[in-house]
Amino acid sequence: MAQTDISRLKASNRQAGRKIGGTVGIFLFLTLLGIFMALPIYLMIVMSVKPTEELFVFPPKFWTLRPTLENFNDMFESVRRNRVPFSRYIFNSVFVTASVTFLQCVFVSMAAFVLAKCRFPGSRLINGIIVAALLYQSNVIYIMQYMVMAKLDMINTLWALILPAVASPMSLFLMRQSIKQMPDAIIEAAKVDGAGLFRICWQVVMPNQKPAFMTMIIFAFQASWNIRSGSLVFDEQYRTLPTAVEQAASSGMATAGIAMAAAVFVLIPPMIVFILAQKQVIETMAHSGIKE
Predict the structure, then answer these.
(1) Among 223, 261, 284, which Cα is nearest to 74's?
(2) Distance CA 256, CA 12 (A)
(3) What is the mean pLDDT of each run of 10 residues along the chain (292 residues)?
């Protein structure tokens, strides 16, 4: 009897040792993966505060001996030389980002609800088109976008940057997949109470889709903040902030520090939004369970 207890104790100790070893291994792997993913951001920040003579040292160093903000000053000075005030670029980017994020959330949410919970002829075909659209980058349809915007007489306006970005196949696919997980019994109960589709969408379905909604906001903000004017906008007064800082940093190798400073400057707003929205996503995922 005593030998049996000892053997069980040894077996449990070996099992506990394997669990601890596996936990330590996973922790080390995730730590290395996190360092690998954070390394580009760290290098970008370090290079943005390096003086010019340290940027071209070989082999390159992962730190700077004399940190400076000259690259940021040169970036702002380069942008100030344009005919348009720097505040105009900020306004254009904020307006485009806010408009795209708001319109995308409204229209994508309604379209996802209809595709997920309404039965109509051609619904499967439309869902297949949405999945196929995920395979194509926006660069593929630039010519078609230009033709449509030209027909609508929106070339050289901010709406030429906003309207094409509102239609997002990725956001629509994510919202549709999330709404499909919601029980049909809740929607049927709302119909019995006399609620219409519009009211069911915004007062019944969407309050239970906060994780997917916040994820869509993250994607929409990140994509719209990085919108560049391209071939749809020619006037300097309608150009966005990423376009302005890209122009300031595209003067050759001598402006490598300015390019890194511009990248850091453009990275800050999406990072702040991601951190704030990520907290909301985690909280809503923990409290948004739905059971029949």
Answers:
(1) 261
(2) 58
(3) 53 57 79 84 81 72 77 73 74 89 90 84 82 72 80 85 84 85 83 83 83 83 81 80 72 65 79 74 48 43
